[in-house]
Write a structure and sequence with these properties.
single chain; 5-stranded antiparallel β-sheet; 5-stranded mixed β-sheet; 0% helix
């Protein structure tokens, strides 16, 4: 079954004809849900202090010409596709692949970057939670002089 739409929701059956035996028939109900106009691949991302995170926001064809943004809930600051901006020493880059997906990269993460963000296009928003953990301890090597 391909290119299903919500109108295809309903009862279906599948049968197998078996020679010299009773046929096998199974009934099943299929519910077809519509694809949201805006979604995220992961609703929660995590990174380490000093590191980076990448995430992907997916949008429908109807949102193709809308402005794409990555917004921070704490201060309502938004970053827009095609621009590079820096906030609290964290570089935020957003790029739209033109195939109904835009990517966000945050680098130089700090603990203060943790919190709620959202992917936004037009009037639509989808939340994403960012967690930032401590940087791993630095390794000290003894040269044995």
């Amino acid at each position: 079954m391909r290119e299903l739409q919500s109108g295809d929701t309903g009862m279906y059956w599948c049968a197998v004809e078996i020679v010299h035996q009773p046929d096998v028939k199974e009934d099943f109900y299929i519910t077809v849900k519509s694809v949201p106009d805006l979604s995220v691949v992961e609703g929660s991302v995590s990174g380490q202090e000093g590191g980076s995170v990448n995430l992907q926001c997916l949008y429908s064809t109807g949102c193709q010409n809308e402005q794409k943004q990555w917004c921070r809930s704490k201060d309502k600051r938004c970053y827009t596709v095609g621009r590079t901006d820096t906030s609290q020493n964290s570089a935020v880059q957003i790029s739209d692949d033109g195939r109904r997906s835009f990517s966000v990269e945050m680098s130089g993460l700090q603990k203060s970057d943790a919190g709620w963000y959202w992917c936004k296009t037009g009037d639509l928003q989808v939340p994403v939670r960012l967690s930032v953990s401590d940087a791993p301890p630095a390794m000290i090597t003894n040269t044995g002089i």
